[in-house]
Each structure stands twice: as structure tokens, then as C-alpha cells.
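Minutes, structural biology subgroup

Action item carried over from last meeting: produce the C-alpha cell record for NAD(FAD)-utilizing dehydrogenase (Dehalococcoides mccartyi). EB confirmed the sequence was re-checked against the source entry. Recorded below for completeness.
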Amino acid sequence: MTVKEIVVIGAGAGGLMAAGRAAECGGKVILLEKTEQPGKKMLISGQGRCNISNSRDIAEFITAFGPNGRFLYSAFSRFFRQELVDLLARYGVETKTERGGRLFPVSDKAHDVVAALTEYASGAALVSGQKVSQILVSEGRVVGVKTEKETFRADAAVIATGGASYPGTGSSGDGFRLAEALGHTIVKLRPALVPLVVKEIDLAKSMQGVALKNIRLTAYRCEADKIPADLTLQDWGRGIAGKKPPKAVIESRMGELMITHFGLGGPLTMLMGLPVAEALEQGAVSVAIDLKPALSLDKLRLRLQRDFDTFGKRSFQNLLSELLPQKMIRPFVDLTGIDPFKCGGQITAAEREVILANLKCLRFNITSTLPLSAAVVTAGGVDLKEINPRTMESKLVKGLYFCGEVMDIDADTGGYNLQAAFSTGYLAGESAAGA
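Output recorded by EB:
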């Protein structure tokens, strides 16, 4: 039986898995990595802990990837969470499940995951510090891979270069250029899982470092549908009430966010980064933070009235300490225009409505997302219509395979994207080896 020569381009999550599986299946594998070490993006994922997967079932995984999720069914059916957990355990890495179904190594060290996968891929020859300049094709079939220094013969090539985010880790968009040069369509690249930049920079800076939990963040088009000023106040608890949101609402979620020197970051903001980025292409976008989503407008109004009556001699800013993080109090007071030293018992009904409005709808105008290079994940990539989902092979070039973020697949945070890279990498490596 002829041994297939396979070149895997990129030693990230998908590339290590593809190289390991291809070698396991009897292929003669070369793993090319343009940086000096494999798995650099994995090392910083999950804040250095590496959120490798999620405990949810395949159906929920596919839903997390939106309309393109169905493409992953074959890959997930071939190699999914349990297979990943078993593989890591084989190399001494035990895993645990945390809040939201997130899977991490018990050690909380991404390095352990990278080390395990590097050992799995040790059957391949790792060549680092070489950037691929061209995939060589003859008569519609891969015949080699050319770097800036040398050329490698190949019966098959796997593009596992990642997206175009965090270029310092090696994910600088090389795979898109290589695929496009071979005739593949690249769906427009956009930042996904990305923070938001606000117009009110001074306000954001004054609250910098504030972490908000259990709040509701709503993004909406603020010009196209000309939202009346009171619409967002009618009930930003619509999600709780189960009512259909206003037409202008882009997305509304509960969770945690961080106020930064440039705007809004944290898990909740990142999840909404892509829909906001897409909406910004059509017009202006604003966001509203409901600081008290568990309380309806009427209940919060009653609470304010009760607190101001009960503690009537306390100053306004002191009364806010029961409602807001300390660092938010002074900026919030400034937003209301109310004297911070005014006694609670002297605050008028009209002033209470202003306070109520800012508690239920703290608004920021979004100017942009951070750039694609700062996004956790790249949306867009090689068009899935041009890839066979059962093998990860190109429909345009024989012997050309894809895995991971270079394809037009992206999902929410929570381990989904890494699992997709592992699953598609495993399938691509197996298919490239002809197993």
C-alpha cells in the first residue's frame, strides 16, 4: 500500500489534530508552523485555561453555529467531546466541567492541552519558522506545498491556519489567501466575539474596570427605525416577560460585561460583537444596559420611592450605593444631573423618573468594534459550499482539505469553536490519509 505524503499547514488546534490523526492512519506527515512553537492561540484561550469544549449535545452545538452549523454534523459525529476527553486523558490531561457546560483541563493550564496534542502529533515531522507561500496543484490535484525556504512534495494538504484574529499567534489570514489563490470563494471576514467601542469615551473611562453581572444588554438600530426616546424604557424586561422585542432591536442578552477605557468588553459584549458589527454596516447602533433586569419598571419605581422615603436624610449618592458598584456612582449621578448631596426625601417624582430611566436604560452609542485582529474569532472564511462536509476536502481541488476557523464557521463562546477545530481537524487528517 502506497504511503500518502501529507502536509498540514498550521500547528494550532485543528492542525495538531489533523497531523496527529493523519500520522495515526499511516500517512507520512509534515506539519508546517510559521511561528516558533505550536498552539500559540490555544495558550491564550480561556484566559490561559483553554476552554476545550462544552457539555451540551451535538444538536445544541450545531445551533450555536447558526445556519452554518449543519455543516459540522459529520465532523461531530466522527469525533466529538467524549473522543476529545479520552484522547487528552491518554496523555495525562484530565478535564472538568464548569458553569455553562464549559470543559477545561483540571490543571487550569492551557499549556497541558497543547503539550498533549503536540505529543499526539509527534508522528508528524514538525517544521517551524516557515511560512507557506503557495500550494502547488497539477491537473486539479495537490502535488506540493511551497514555503519561503523550500518545497515539500504532497499528495494532500490540510489548511489549518486559523482565522485573521490575534495575528501574533500566527492567525494572520494566510489560509484565506492560499485558498483564494486556488479558486475558493472567501465569505467576507468580520470580527466575531469582539468588544465594542463607544462614542461616550469619557463616560466609559470614568467607569473603567467596573464588572457588571446579571445585567441585560440590548443592541438596537437607533436611526433606521427612529425609536422614540421612551420605547426602550417601556420595558427592557421584554425578554423576561416573553414579549416580542421592538423591531429595531438587534439582539438582547443577559450576562456579564466589563466597562473599559474604550467602551464595553466582557463575555456578554463579545457574544453580541458580530451582530453589532453587521448592523453598523447598515447604520447607527446604540446599546442599552438594563442594570436591574430582574425588576420591572413599576417594581423598580416602587423600590426607589420606598428607599428615598425610608432613608430620606441620606444623600442621593449614598443611596445609590445600594444599587450600583461604587465606581459607577459619581458618573451615574452626573448623568442624572441631580445634586449628589441632595437628600433622598427631597428628590422629586420627576427626578426619580430620570434615575429610573438610567438604571433601566444606560445608553451608549457604538462607533465600531475593535479591529478584526483583536477579535477572539473570525467570522467568514472559505465558503462551505466548496467543501465536502463528510471529508473536509475541497470540491474544487483534489487532495486539498480544510479545518477550523479558516472555514466560514463561528460560534458563541463556551468551547464551541475549539471543539469544531478539533473535530474538523480529526476528520480532515483522517480523510487526507485515505483512512
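Discussion: The radius of gyration is 25 Å.
Next step: EB to file the record with the rest of the batch.
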